[in-house]
Amino acid sequence: MGNAFVCESVFENQPSQGVAVYCSDGRFADHFDEFVTQSLGLTCCDRIVIPGGPAYLADHPGVEADGASLLEQIKFMVEAHNLNRVILIMHEDCGCYSHKLGYPAGPEQQQRQADDLAMAVHVVRDVCPNVSIECYIALIDGDQVQFQGGQV
Ligand SMILES: [Zn+2]
């Protein structure tokens, strides 16, 4: 197996404080992490990372099975870790929306993402009635990323 890589990060066996659902897009990975830990203050946060993030929770034709699977995963995390926070994050210029769901990057995509987040809140609340749900969108601003949104 060769030499093991030993992480600098210390392993802290602390309970998770929430679950964040966001897109796999690697361009935003550091920003999602920074936002969840620094802005939301979740020092330990579970993550469900899939293309499009919460997109499949909305009613897009042909991806109903993905939506059901994602919802089941969220429910599992909430129950298994006794969580009371669910964080749903979309991002600008999402390839899942442009390549799979039929919404090219731009205002139409962002409007659909906002609509999808509103729908996702209801879907999550149905299966996890006791959690607080937060929705955010990550927007590109030059060489920076800013997050807008909050608790709903
Ligand atoms: Zn994406």
Q: Top keywords for this entry?
A:
152 residues, alpha/beta, five-stranded mixed β-sheet, 37% helix, 4 helices, 5 strands, binds zinc ion, single chain
Describe the protein's architecture and organization.
With 152 residues, the chain is α/β, with parallel strands linked by helices. The chain has four helices and five strands. A five-stranded mixed β-sheet has the order 2-1-3-4-5, sandwiched between helices. β1, α1 (29-39) and β2 (46-49) form a beta-alpha-beta unit. The chain binds zinc ion. Residues 23, 25, 52, 91, 94-96 line the site of zinc ion.
What's this model, at a glance?
The chain is of the alpha/beta class and 152 residues long. The protein is 37% helix and 22% strand.
The number of strands is 5
Helix content: 25-40%
Overall domain count: 1
Distance between the termini: 48 Å
Topology:
Blueprint: E1 19-22, H1 29-39, E2 46-49, H2 64-80, E3 85-91, H3 95-101, H4 107-127, E4 132-141, E5 144-151
Parallel strand pairs: 1-2, 1-3, 3-4
Antiparallel strand pairs: 4-5
Residues 23, 25, 52, 91, 94-96 line the site of zinc ion.
